[in-house]
Every structure is written in C-alpha cells, then in structure tokens.
Amino acid sequence: MNWIVLSPHLDDAVYSCGGWIWEQTQAGEHVEIWTVCAGDPPPGPLSPFTQSLHTRWKTGADAGEVRRVEDQSAASRLGAGIRHLDLPDCIYRRDPVSGEALYASEAAIFGEVHPSEKPVITWLSALIAEIPPETESVCPLTLGGHVDHRLVRTAAEQAGCVGRYYADYPYVARGDADITIRLPAGWRAQVLPISEPGIKAWTEAIAMYTSQMSTFWPDRAAMEAELRGYLQRFGGLRLWRRDLAKL
Questions:
Q1: Handedness of CA 115, 87, 104, 219 (dihedral sign)
Q2: What domains are there in the chain, each with its CATH number?
Q3: Greatest CA separation for the chain
Q4: What Cα–Cα distance (Å) separates residue 83 from each residue in 29, 158, 175?
Q5: In angstroms, rounded to a whole number, what is the distance separating the alpha carbons of residues 242 and 247?
Q6: What digits encode the pLDDT tens for the residues 68-83?
Q7: pTM above 0.90, yes or no
Q8: 202: part of which helix (H) or strand (E)?
Q9: Which of 71, 73, 5, 14 is nearest to 38 (CA)?
C-alpha cells in the first residue's frame, strides 16, 4: 500500500497521525508526507503579526528553512518520505491586487479562506488529482478551522482524492470542534492501535519541531502527557473512511 498524507504545514501530519505513519512504515508500506505550505515568503515586508511569530519561534527570517529541516528530521524518525510544495504559509500570503497581507492576525488565520485564494485551490486540486489510484491520500478534517487546513481539504475534495480523513491534532484533543458535523455522509471511524514503540517514535518526532513546541505545549512532558491521554480516550488513533458496507 502507498499512502500520501496531506499536511497543511510543516508539522500537521506528524502531530496528527505520526504514530500511525510509523506503524505503516514498519509494516513495509510506503508513506509520503506532502506539506502544502512549505514555501518561503515572497519578497517584501512582513506583517507585525508574522514578525511576532518569528520571534516566538526563535527562527528570525529563516523560519521556512528552519521548519523544513525540522520536518525532514521528524519524517525520517517515522520512516516517511516528504514532498515540500512551494506555497507559503498563510501568514506570508498577500492580496494579488493590493499587496496587503491576507491573514495578518490570529483571528484571520482561523477565519475564512480569502476569496482571492481560489486560484490556489484550483492549482492544488489539480496537483492532488495526479495522485495515482493505487496510492491512498489522507486529508485533514480541518478541526480548529485554520485557513490552510480548510484550503487543503477543499482542494483534496475537489480533486476527488480523499481516501481517509485524520483529526487535526492537538485541536481535536482540546474539544475544539464537533467531528460529526465535519464529516461527509457515509464515513465512519476506524480506531487503529498504536504500539508503545509507535508512541515513542511519535513523541520523538513531534519534539523535533523545536520552533513550534511553545505554540501548543509548555514543555515536552506536557506534550507527551496530552498525546497519551488522547490515545487512551479513544483506544488508539482514529482515521475516517467511507463505510463500504453502505455503498
């Protein structure tokens, strides 16, 4: 089996299903993580909001390169391949007419996708549509509502190439959204056990995103405790697939 996990950012796939990725690669299956928003920012000034994130991440202007290196290390720990697309993170994207930042605040990045981004969705959808039928894609459910997660899911669904959905972690562990209202009709959850070595690989891979740790957890111990609590709550990791029995 070949798998492509669609990751909006340079961490989402590993955060959300890293243990499952490790289990698949250990079983001899090929997994590749496609990170959509992995490009460098365009030339020009950054918004104050973006500059504040660079300060918190302790990356300075090299945030893109730092995060790509982190992602390579995390994917290697899980035995997965990577593909980094050239689209910049939403915090860097600008209105094609005015040149103003499209998402210049915390509220904006968890709001609606800007209408000017329709060509981006069309481009991404065409790229995803090229995934061969023998390869199954895994797509975010968009829990948390981040615009880049919404953009990726919309493009994958337009391409008709969603084989599984994953719950966006850590948003799903914090009661951020009702999963049932975000599922298409006729999909059901599979609960997939993650072994202790798989959990170990998963937490180690998450910890490799050093720049992002403070965004979600005060320290590594808190991260590991939350992840284990999440898995214990459901008895493993859930992925959603079409209910073939109802077709």
A1: positive
A2: 2-246 (3.40.50.10320)
A3: 54
A4: 17, 21, 31
A5: 9
A6: 999 999 999 999 999 9
A7: yes
A8: helix 196-207
A9: 71
